[in-house]
Amino acid sequence: MSIRSTLLAAAFTIASLGAAHAAGLKPIEGSSIRLGELTGVAYYTVEPAGFRVVTTLAQGEAGTPIRFVSVLASGQRVLLSTPMEASALEISRTGDRLTIRNPNAISN
User: Does some domain include residue 71?
Assistant: First the structure.
């Protein structure tokens, strides 16, 4: 199995542990995410400097995975976006709660 396949398999395995869009995540709990045509997983661990958020995205099974790592203190957020589709994904921390949401989504 190639490294790319291994990374995608690991990402989707973590994602199967639980999804929580626009809801709070627990440490190590994976959340399936979608950013335009890219899909992947996001999870976090608690470290002394803050929540270490790992986001991995790829386009289909053949796409090269891209990993973003950020450390968020309370009140901080990170925004991932694609210019082609004007889609975005916001990951934010408030206190001990981490949320993932699509700020472009329309709620009914």
Answer: yes
